[in-house]
Amino acid sequence: MSELAVMAKPGSTPLIDPYQRKITYLRVSVTDRCDFRCVYCMAEDMTFLPKAEILSLEELDRLCSAFVRMGVRKLRLTGGEPLVRRNIMSLFRALGRHVEAGDLDELTVTTNGSQLAKYAAELRDAGVRRINVSLDTLDPAKFAAITRWGKLAQVLDGLAAAKAAGLAVKINAVALKGVNEDEFDRMVAWCGDEGFDLTIIEVMPMGDIGPDRLDQYLPLSLVRARLAQKWRLEESAYRSGGPARYFTIGETGRRLGFITPLTHNFCESCNRVRLTCTGTLYMCLGQEDAADLRDPLRASEGDEALDAAIREAIGRKPKGHDFIIDRRHRGPAVPRHMSVTGG
Ligand code: SAM
Ligand code: SF4
User: How far apart are CA 225 and CA 218, in angstroms?
Assistant: First the structure.
């Protein structure tokens, strides 16, 4: 295709926000449901969205494909637990066509790992090469306490299947005061043995989950200082455009990331937006402003209205978030749960 034809293609100019940040990364929460009830993420008795409000897999494909046409190069499916949505592999396969065509650099997933034993090989076939698996502890009893409904052995089986399928794995662990703070040393060693990268996440004030956030909050500066006594943490130039800072662990050669949304400002390099399973687009994880894409999506079979709604929304992307956890702000800074927007 000639350069002129590319330029003339409707809706194909890149998405640039008012602060000149290019939007190249879309995270999609494909369901708000989950087979776990992690204490920092959900209350035990969650009310989920009525199924009728949820976009179909075909609609999600159409929405994601519109973003890809507008320059998104990386798609992450998340949730809730993405792998519990019925027939979810059909969406992975449909989106995989963009990877094959060279229009997408990466199709990936964040999962709790419970269904990985079943799906790892299929994910790889669909074009997924790297996955994030959330795992906060290697202790079966603690795992059961944190996830309320999960079984560690099932996740470890899933991780083995992912390795066998040739998927690169990054473990995400949320740091919880008094719960897993003594375990990071062991997790660094375990990830080294398994060939996994590790990212440690500071707990974020999202959604009403019952217990007081102040009880969970553990600043990562502390975790890092403790790890640095035991391991050689070499500063890494690697950047993902998100809130993580990366190190390479000298002894294992694996990457170690710290996500500290509360103690560091990372918004200048933000390249991402988030879509919920009802078609609501959040321009910032830490702000309430959102745009409805479901109506324009359903209004016509053509994508003109949808493309216009996406561009209008990106034009409203805020400069940054303002999460605060302190004694004056005990409630959630953002009322929606992480499982709605997708982590
Ligand atoms: N169910 C999948 C999983 O657990 O990986 C995907 C969705 S989950 C909401 C995505 C990530 O958000 C997980 O790594 C989880 O640990 C993290 N998360 C959930 N609630 C959080 C919170 N309040 N603060 C920080 N991270 C949180
Ligand atoms: Fe489910 Fe993931 Fe939330 Fe845990 S963190 S309850 S696995 S969505």
Answer: 13
